[in-house]
Model the fold of this input.
Amino acid sequence: MPIMKAVVIHEPGGPEVLKVESIPIPTPLAGQVLIRVKAFGINRSEMFTRQGHSPGVRFPRVLGIEAVGLVEEVPGDEFRKGDIVATAMGGMGRAFDGGYAEYTCVPVAQVQAIQTKLPWEILGAMPEMLQTAWGSLFKSLGLAEGERLLIRGGTTSVGLAAAAIAKNHRAFVAATTRNPGHTELLRSSGVDDVIVDTGSIADEVQRKFPGGVDKVLEMIGTVTLEDSLQCAKQGGIVCMTGIVGNKWSFDQFSPMEAIPTAVCLTVYAGDSGDFMRTPLNELARLIEAGKLCVQIAKTFHLDDIVLAHRLMEENKAGGKIVVLT
Done:
């Protein structure tokens, strides 16, 4: 039986529970496609699963909610062998084995072909990061040209991508960072105004943008959400997408006090349908033309997956972490 190298987790724990093993290459059935994985980005949701915070996931499991690579086999001929493709979500790395491997087998309905000559490390950063940024901006926030957007947690990989996409959409982009040294990183992604985050920025935002900003993308989560709600104008929208603050819920939450009058609060989670609606080919062309900057923090190889997870856990990456197979 043909075998492949894959990262297998047998029990929850720290990065060290990720084990590189040899396992059989999966066989695609009708409606599936076998992808020879060339690269994948790593995501905080995979870290949460690794830590044991995904009760629906059964071990052993190959993690990875995204992958890019080449079509190896497709029984239904929906693609051609050798097509460059991307996949994400839809149960990858949770309900079935995901992208942390040399091959992954996924439903055809969650695969996009990409016509591009971009290198694998750039392609590996795109699927989940751009899907989340695009969906947050346009599905949940309804961002329009000329609006003022605040990204809370701007140096996250999604935050940086959202800034670049929003700037291309001709929005005014403000973003936060706890580290003033990240100012140039943010500006290189299209941020117009950098705000140093002390944990409470609402007063400064209201001073800079009297009445508040039009839209707020919250990447940190519950630890800053109440303050972020105070940054939006009446009729504005706050979307919580990220939980990099590692706190899943409020100890106490009083909606009448926390949510200002006429400010809308929503979330963005994303699913395989949202991934398929993300215009990856269009975004790839913008990247190729130098009009959309994708910030790669560091590239690892599959054998170094433990080091990649440690870097993600430290919250110091400053961009997307990509793993090449």
In short: The CA atoms of residues 64 and 123 lie 15 Å apart.
